[in-house]
Design a protein that fits this description.
Elements: E1 7-8, E2 14-20, E3 25-30, E4 35-38, H1 43-51, H2 55-62, E5 71-73
Antiparallel strand pairs: 1-2, 2-3, 3-4, 4-5
Length: about 80
C-alpha cells in the first residue's frame, strides 16, 4: 500500500495525516503508534479534517467508527 505525504498535526492523538486522492483513502498516524488507512473518504472530508480547530474531534465525529469508512492497519511501516 502506497503511503501519501503525511502532514504533521498539533493533535494530542494524531501525529500526522495524509490523503491518497486516487484511492479516496485517509491515512492517519496516531501518536501512540500505528498508521491506519480509512476508505471512502472524500477530498473535502480530508480538507475539513486538516483545517478543523480539533482534528481529533473532527475525526471522531466524521470518520471513526463509521461503517462507510472501513479501515486497515498499514503493516510494514515504521511509526
Amino acid at each position: 500500500m502506497k503511503i501519501p505525504e503525511m502532514k504533521p498535526t498539533s493533535s494530542s492523538q494524531i501525529a500526522s495525516i495524509g490523503y491518497d486522492e486516487d484511492e479516496s483513502k485517509l491515512f492517519i498516524q496516531f501518536t501512540r503508534g500505528g498508521i491506519y488507512a480509512y476508505s471512502n473518504v472524500s477530498e473535502d472530508q480530508f480538507n475539513n479534517l486538516l483545517n478543523s480547530a480539533s482534528i481529533g474531534k473532527e475525526f471522531a465525529k466524521e470518520i471513526k467508527g463509521q461503517a462507510r469508512h472501513p479501515f486497515v492497519k498499514v503493516e510494514g511501516v515504521a511509526s
